[in-house]
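User: Structure please.
Assistant: Input sequence and predicted structure:
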Amino acid sequence: MSRTLARRMTAVAAIAVASLGLAACGSDSEGDGGGSGETVKIGFMGDLTGPNKQLGINILDGAKLALADYEKTNPDVKITIVEYDSQGDPKQASGLAPKVIDDGVVGLVGPAFSGETADTGAAWEEAGLPFVSASATRVTLSDNGWKTFHRVLADDGFQGPGVATFMANNGFETVAIIDDASEYGQGLANEVDAKAKELGLTVAVREAVAAEGTTVPNYSSTISKIKGANVDAIFYGGYYAQSGGFVKQLRDGGEDAVFVSGDGSLDGAFIEGGGEAANGAALSCACALINDTATGAAKTFYDAYKAAYNTEPGTYSPEGYDAMTAFINAVKDGKTDRAGILEYLTTVDFEGVSKQIKFEANGNIVGGTILMYQVKDGAIVGIGTTEDAKLS
């Protein structure tokens, strides 16, 4: 565990203790009440201890910061966050779903990943439990007819074509597209593949290499195919637990094509896994990384986050804040049960930290911009949108 992560976990633990203290003030196990002194439970589900835990921790930190801001107003109705650690595993998420429902949670921030969202969405729908994901981007999640489903970032139907456009605009003509066989990774890679071909790029290698846990697969046979195809760029659809190791194997194997990946790789842990090989990589996201150059509400968020966790906001931290804020605003409006909150979400329209938060009828966020980042000298820096970003 890095020192930065250790500090963050310490801060999370401190806030969790405070949340437990709030729960002691009283709770409504069914979430049906609405009077003074009531405590409303909002759940969080995502990876907190698994192979890609930093992404889940980032979301939870953002959500807890939103709750801390709410608590400053000394509200009559208290809110507590109940954590459910799925480790990003769809099977674990499905196993936790009945407990979430029985615990009287009235809203859920999450699930974090597309696979766990796909496997639990029907359960939330049946229970009438509104859920707002800060990070699940698979396109088909909004095609299930779940009225309880929402997400606060654009899906891979924006991200995939955006990445392909970025590659074309940077002069790449022949590419390899690899994915980790997950709901998220494969879905994003398919979107990149389709748009790349539409734009006239040659997809010389298209493979899925199943990845599990923190173990990085041996990509030697895939790398041999990539080297033989003489590609300009390699796109990887998957998470940082494997993408860092993949780029390292590529460079160790003598392959120097530009490495491109999506939001699942947009974390400092990708750089830790790839080392020097990570430099030059291009990473996309429908999220904005907020730093000390921010202004307005984003700067206020940055300063508060830095003070609370002694580190900068990470990938999806602003989205976690905004997802939680949607539930907080519902409670402020007097909606403290599942049905009331679900109805309220259909009317949500506020300026969030990450973007304007307003949902379409299928739960998707209205609009969406895909940003590109590049790893330079061991740091992730923004280089623009997928339409105008240029590698340096």
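The two ends are 32 Å apart (CA to CA).
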